[in-house]
Amino acid sequence: MMEALLHREIVAAVVSPATAGYFNLTHADRAARLIAAADADPGLSWNVAVGMIKPDARLREAVDEALDKLMADGTIVRIYARYGVVLQPPG
To answer: Where along the chain do its domains lie?
Structure first.
């Protein structure tokens, strides 16, 4: 969608903030203007997620703990920034 937007094949696209941020980072000379029109859509408002094939409470707890530590020490914010993504507070 972002490529189609860049080439004016479409006039608008609804994408996640991560997609738009990375696109703008890699196309700084042709960055897209962002409008927060879909912020209320939970499908587009995630920050950090880990998908698991099988439920595993202990593993989920360990992943949650690791993510909490990475958030607390600023690692996740730094990683996101490297890709042009601004970490949004949970909605």
So the answer is: 2-82
pTM listed for this prediction: 0.59
Burial of 56 (0-12, 13-18, 19+ CB in 10 A): exposed
- Within 13 A of 18's CA, how many CA atoms are on the CB side? 12
pLDDT tens across 15-72, in order?
Answer: 877 788 899 999 989 888 887 776 666 666 666 667 788 888 999 899 889 989 999 9
Residue 21: count of CB within 10 angstroms of its CB: 21
**Segments of the chain assigned E as strands:** none
